[in-house]
Amino acid sequence: VSQRLRKQKYQLIIDLVSCADCLDAATDKIGRSYNIGKSLSDFVVELEDGSGTRYAPFLADLLKNKAVQDDLSYLLSEGRLQTYKSTYIFLKDVQEHRGMRTV
User: Fold this and answer.
1) For residue 6, what are the CA distances in angstroms to 13, 14, 21?
2) Which among 2, 9, 47, 4 is positioned nearest to 27, based on CA atoms?
3) Residue 102: helix, strand or coil by DSSP?
4) Helix, strand, coil % over all residues of the chain, rounded to 5
5) C-alpha span between 51 and 43 (Å, rounded)
6) CA atoms within a 13 Å half-sphere pointing along the CA-CB vector of 91
7) In terms of C-beta density within 10 A (0-12 exposed, 13-18 middle, 19 or more buried), how is residue 89 classed?
8) Cβ burial, residue 75 (10 Å; 0-12/13-18/19+)
9) SS (H, E, C) the chain
């Protein structure tokens, strides 16, 4: 199977993961403190501006969906904070288990 056919087969997944990574980087106000995090609505505007070039065209419509925006709003706020807290606790436990200095 050629590289092009393989890419076509997984293009939907590639587009979604790429968008998710860009969304995370653009909206993060905690972990990527080298940038001022954008709001979800600002990212949607960026997505619309880059539709067809930087982003797959279907993504702008997907992120305009109210249910998707509600889910993303939660994940980018409380969900993100919970993930950071859980990761911190996990890493602290691993360090203590290995006799390492705590964070």
Assistant:
1) 12, 11, 21
2) 47
3) coil
4) 70, 0, 25
5) 12
6) 9
7) exposed
8) middle
9) CCHHHHHHHCHHHHHHHHHHHHHHHHHCCCCCCCCCCCCHHHHHHHHHHCECCCECHHHHHHHHCHHHHHHHHHHHHHHHHHHHHHHHHHHHHHHHHCCCCCC
AA letter at 75: L
Inter-axis angle of helices 57-64 and 40-49, nearest 10: 150
Taking only the tens of pLDDT, the chain with its 103 residues reads: 577 767 788 999 999 999 999 999 999 887 776 778 899 999 999 999 999 999 999 999 999 999 999 999 999 888 888 988 999 999 999 988 887 665 5
Residue 100's pLDDT is 65
Task: Using a cut of 0.85, tell me whether the model's pTM lies above it.
Answer: no
